[in-house]
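Exercise 7. Given the encoded structure of a 317-residue chain, write a plausible sequence.
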């Protein structure tokens, strides 16, 4: 395996603060790169330093506006490739379009697979991401994919609270594995909210709670909070089932559309998110806590660059 002498981190406009924090962890300056739009709405990228044979990491979550940030990453990859970078790793803390990972309706695309093909064709050599919506997305790429999880980060935060009789609750059956992993970290039992999605507008019909939650402190867990419909419905269903207090955690705080208003009225004492994508101040209130994944990404980048195991980061003694 080739060894790359120099490690360089660049970023687009999706989350410059996270990229800067990653570089602070790595004790290396953020690479100099111009990324902007011309007046005709075309995206322009120019690398302002030598990257020949360097180990290049491009930090770019697919946050709002998603299509602009996807295009920025593709052009950054192409620019690095044409500048003779030794290896190009696309660091995508939030992989947008992750929900379209299968054909669940007639005549619909599998956009997550399409996006994987485009990133590969652009010239990326590997991908580093965090908490994909569906694990099978890793298999959409014909190149190495390292999927990290922020679960230990918010597990530590929750453990420090010493909650009384906690029970970890998956917001739907598809998120059971994530909830089970958190339950193991907290030595807590598991419950599941059974729900039925009624359309493509984010509206869901909550069904019932599977598991014993009465007189406990519930911890809802999901990979992302988009319109917050699932979190709101699940928290109300839990209270109806006899839960005393509700906490919630998710890696990606998309918080689109009615999410801030729904969360303000939801019976959730604290919603724990990460900075995988920016959480604007106007969308926060006293119940939202944002934890950083800069150290998580920085350590993974350090290990990838040095040829060390990334999986060992999550091995428990």
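Solution.
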């Amino acid at each position: 395996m080739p060894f790359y002498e120099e490690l360089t981190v660049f970023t687009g406009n999706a989350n410059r603060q996270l990229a800067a924090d990653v570089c602070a962890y790595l004790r290396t300056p953020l690479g100099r790169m111009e990324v902007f739009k011309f007046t005709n709405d075309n995206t322009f990228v120019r690398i302002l330093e030598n990257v020949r044979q360097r180990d290049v990491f491009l930090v770019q979550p697919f946050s709002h506006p998603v299509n602009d940030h996807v295009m920025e990453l593709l052009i950054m990859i192409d620019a690095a490739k044409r500048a003779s970078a030794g290896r190009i790793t696309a660091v995508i803390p939030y992989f947008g379009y992750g929900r379209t990972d299968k054909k669940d309706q007639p005549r619909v695309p599998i956009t997550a697979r399409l996006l994987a093909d485009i990133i590969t064709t652009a010239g990326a050599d590997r991908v580093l991401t965090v908490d994909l919506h569906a694990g099978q997305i890793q298999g959409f790429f014909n190149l190495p994919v390292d999927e990290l999880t922020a679960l230990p980060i918010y597990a530590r935060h929750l453990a420090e609270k010493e909650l009384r009789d906690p029970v970890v609750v998956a917001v739907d059956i598809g998120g059971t594995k994530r909830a089970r992993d958190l339950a193991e970290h907290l030595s807590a039992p598991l419950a599941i909210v059974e729900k039925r999605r009624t359309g493509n507008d984010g509206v869901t019909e909550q069904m019932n709670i599977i598991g014993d939650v009465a007189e406990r402190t519930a911890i809802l867990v999901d990979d992302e909070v988009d319109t917050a419909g699932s979190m709101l419905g699940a928290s109300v269903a839990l209270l109806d089932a006899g839960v005393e207090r509700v906490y919630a955690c998710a890696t990606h705080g998309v918080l689109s559309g009615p999410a801030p208003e729904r969360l303000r009225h939801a019976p959730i004492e604290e919603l724990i998110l990460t900075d995988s994508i920016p959480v604007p101040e106007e969308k926060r209130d006293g119940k939202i806590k944002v934890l950083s994944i800069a150290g998580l990404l920085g350590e993974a980048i350090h290990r990838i660059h040095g040829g060390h195991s990334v999986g060992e980061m999550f091995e428990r003694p």
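Remark. The mean pLDDT is 93. Students should compare their own answers with the one above.
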